[in-house]
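Subject: Interface between my chains keeps coming out wrong

I've been trying for a while to get a sensible model of this assembly. When I model each chain on its own everything looks fine, but I need the whole thing in one frame so I can look at the contacts. Pasting all components below, labels as-is. Any help appreciated, I'm running out of ideas.
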Amino acid sequence: MRLTTFTDYCLRVLTYVGTKDEGAVTIGEIAKHYSISRNHVMKVVFRLGQCGYLTTTRGKGGGMRLAMAPSEINIGTLVRQMETDIDLVECFETGNNACQIMPACVLRGALHQALGAFLAVLDKYTLADLLRPKAELSRLLTPSA
Amino acid sequence: MRLTTFTDYCLRVLTYVGTKDEGAVTIGEIAKHYSISRNHVMKVVFRLGQCGYLTTTRGKGGGMRLAMAPSEINIGTLVRQMETDIDLVECFETGNNACQIMPACVLRGALHQALGAFLAVLDKYTLADLLRPKAELSRLLTPSA
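Reply #2:
Try treating it as a single job with all components included. I did that and got this:
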């Protein structure tokens, strides 16, 4: 059981952008700091833009900024949006009822309940919580001289 | 986010074996009923045997049976045993601390808490709960004449 790398990177990108108060942030900067490929960061930034979390400006001094307050970015909501395959088992997929015992399956209900509990914990967090140790985050995300 | 097919099949195999009170169950029977490959079922049965959930007898009339009472088979424990990759994000792996912000990461704690909530729900279930609709399961797992 694992979150996708995509969701993981979405959370890291938002944390990075949220930590930088001054000026816009570039894709190259994020890729360098987390040691992840520019290509990955580009896809993540595009999707976060589509979902209204980031705005991007072009040209000199351009880059991305948060498009909403960190306290408005809910982590549970974000994970639901980014995890395209949040179906814990095959029968969670819409239209997939290949399993013989589905009509009498107690496990399906138990797994739904467990997934609900997982997401309910994340629903209690916003990006503002993730940014609380801001001074330390800022230090960790600043290149050493 | 998804359980592995292996864990899914472990749960299905135990449900099947637990539903059949009379006589031992064969690998071929399970493979046929769930439409999954014999090879997959064999691997799953081997592992469930290793973990003490199933016993197997050879020869004519042989096959597998539960090695403990269904009420003693806890679903949370089983999922922890079978999910070799229950590390939600890369930094959960022992020895992997490549992420720049790990020392100040609030998300890591939130994800640990969410995973705990997920497993805590499954800890409340045993195989006996999964077998509660036994008459219906038995009907669904019996070949139509």
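Reply #3:
Confirming on my end. DSSP finds seven helices and two strands in chain A.
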